[in-house]
Design goal:
Layout: E1 2-3, E2 16-20, E3 23-27, E4 35-40, E5 48-51, E6 54-55, H1 60-72, E7 78-84, H2 86-99, E8 103-109, E9 112-118, H3 125-129, E10 138-142, E11 151-155, H4 156-159, E12 167-172, E13 176-181, E14 186-191, E15 200-204, E16 209-213
Antiparallel strand pairs: 1-6, 2-3, 2-5, 3-4, 4-14, 5-6, 7-12, 8-9, 8-11, 9-10, 12-13, 13-14, 15-16
Amino acid sequence: MRTSTVKNPHSAIGSSVLFADGSVVVFGDPPHDDLIVEQRNVKSSTPTLHREGILQDIEESALNELMGKVRALSHSDAVAQFNLNLSLLEKIKDSIKKWSCTHIRVFTHEGKIRFLFFDCRMGDLKFRAARKNSLAVHYLDLQVIVIEEFTFTFKAKSFAKIPFDDYLVRIGDNSICTLKPTNKDCHYLMRDQEIHEPMVYFASSRLNSEIVFSPAPNF
């Protein structure tokens, strides 16, 4: 292995960079390892993979196969597709900071798409007792055409890495969301975290049992 001099166009997202078939792919570093960005129309001679500036000794066939797997992520049946304009993206990012949420769940709600912001740590009783308004969830609604009922959960820290722009958002039936800027030859892939806002348990001495409260799509 040897130090490489390639330029990483998305270093804020990750340090593992794949060049193959006229594209560059950057894989997100933890805690953004659910995020991948592919930029096309990039000049490259032979397939290479670089990790933290170090050229990896990997066969070209394996790198081409990896590129094929990355591209296959966006080839699925869509369950939802909508436009995310700059104004709404700004609201979402502001909400992430304002409410200190860890996740964003997007789902259908009465003919709209709802963005629900929550802190997954609410499920920890010790953590919840020490925070004001720790049981609160917040949401934004977007009026769009929905192909079918769906739910998809983003990691808030990863979503915050998406650059400000206008996007076409596509939710696939393979638990992958593709965000494509309207005027750039690249796209972002994010993996569904498959969690919902935590349930809240209340002990009732009168009923001698526990009561469960879970904020659901129809609350």
